[in-house]
Amino acid sequence: MSTPALRAVGVSERFAGLRAALPALLLGVAAWAILFRQEIAAAIQVWVDSTAYNHCFLIIPIALYLAWDRRNKFATAPLCPLPRIALLVVALLLAWFAAERLGIMEGRQLAAMAMLQVMFLAVLGWRLWKGLSAPLLYLFFLIPFGAFIVPQLQSFTAWFIDRGLDLFGIVHYSDANFIQIPEGSFYVAEACAGLRFLIASVAYGVLYALLMYQSWVRRFVFIAVSTIVPVVANGFRAFGIVALGHVLGSADAAAADHVLYGWIFFSLVILVLTLLGLSFRQEPDYARPDGTGELPRPGAGGFAVATAAAISALCASGPIAVAALQSRGGIAYVSISPVLPARSGCVQENSPGTLPAGDVPYPAAGRFLCKGIPFRFRVRRFAPTSGASLVLSEQRRLASADSEGVQTVYASGPWRLTLTQEPPSLVASALWVDGKPAQPGLSTRLNLALDSLAGSSQEAVLVSLAPELAGNQASLAQAQQALIPLLENHSSLDEQFARLSTDGRDADSHR
Questions:
Q1: Which of 23, 106, 176, 271 matches a 20 to 30 Å C-alpha distance to 411?
Q2: What is the pTM of this model?
Q3: Number of domains in the chain
Q4: Domain containing residue 47
């Protein structure tokens, strides 16, 4: 085998390897985007809806800048496709399939992004990919990942406030995430947990470390500091709000515009980190171009296209398998008028009522009144092949769980009553899997996933309960108080809805 000759590469021959790989990359990325369009759409929706991930719109421009900044590292690198790397896609597909069956969108997105990285490596080869590794790996920040640590961040922030109040001798009472002082009460909500500061700080810390340092030790230290500092800083911010309420004599006055103050405080923290990091800056090792390199071998471009096509075909097997499972089932909307518990104080109303604008049509289930406020049950059954993804995404949609300002105001058995601030809404929901009340958690996801693969004679049943009235906070507060007695006496309702999982096929329903 002859070895390609090394020689000086002229200006017109720079990036020859990358140009030869461009058709393969365009083919591969386009196919990947089509196959995993649900993951992409879900990510963009989170970027739009959540202030914790608004910065994700900047990730692709930042990655492009990193590629331009490091252009000398891959300007003369040859195109050497590595088709054997495609075997890694098999393991990633299994991970993606498991995440899809378990209903973990972040897992699907992580696996999909990893498959894209494998495609780049297999098409470009090791040397060319290594030169582009910084901008390519930075694309992982496109994934809205990290929401699962919000409860831990809430607990740490509440603990920090409690210790700070103890230190300054401020009389207070703490109960989980609730802090009460003589001047009023504070609640460490999800929005106050500091996730938005943490995610943005880590993304900034990685970018800063890539631009300012060459030593992996210095990069690791700065990224670690960028991870720890915002968590502690958010504790100081939250404690400052509570302490300010004590000084001003009003909790409401101190909490006004606390999110805006939080961003100002966070900006100052980032500024301090930036100034401290400048003291340890290192000159980049890719400032001067490398004057020698290997030109692409004849036919390397075509080989790269074949590699991208093979990986795309392999990636397609996952979505095709899921589509085959979902074609055998779906959601059925059930007509049922459950017998209400006598102690609930609610009475059945025969009037069919009016569906809210944009709601999915379903057979009339009848309304009922609690303290004069109209409510309606909405019942959905899911075929066993549906998997956790469809069932839990529908449950989260009903409860507006992905919106900001969502609070669980009551929980009993399988029932969760959630209140959304904007737009105002109140929804109680409960889920039955295999005829049993299902609690939020991994065990429910596993049961749904196993049923979708091994089959089951029982269907998952999702019930939602919402008032039919104008969505404003005053009316929703009244509806909440009217609904609590019904949820406190939910055992007879549970039995009626659990039976739907086995004999619900005889009920009036349509898919």
A1: 106
A2: 0.80
A3: 3
A4: 10-145+284-324
Question: pLDDT category, 6, cuts 50, 70, 90?
Answer: very low
Q: Which of 222, 88, 193, 203 is nearest to 145 (CA)?
A: 203
Q: What SS3 state is found at 378?
A: strand
How many CB atoms are located within 10 Å of the residue 424 CB? Answer: 16
Same domain, 64 and 189: no
491 in the same domain as 407: yes
**In this structure, what is the dihedral angle of CA atoms 417, 421, 424, 427, given to the nearest 10 degrees?**
-10
> Does 139 share its domain with 233?
no
Same domain, residue pair 502 and 364: yes
* Dist. CA 318–CA 106, nearest whole Å: 16
- H helix or E strand, kind and range, residue 14: none
Contact 335, 114 (CB under 8 A): no
My answer on whether 377 and 299 are in the same domain is: no
Q: Note the pLDDT tens digit of each residue in 293-342.
A: 566 666 777 888 999 999 999 999 999 988 888 777 677 777 777 778 87
- Count of positions (residues) in the chain: 511
Give the C-alpha separation, 204 to 198, whole Å. Answer: 10
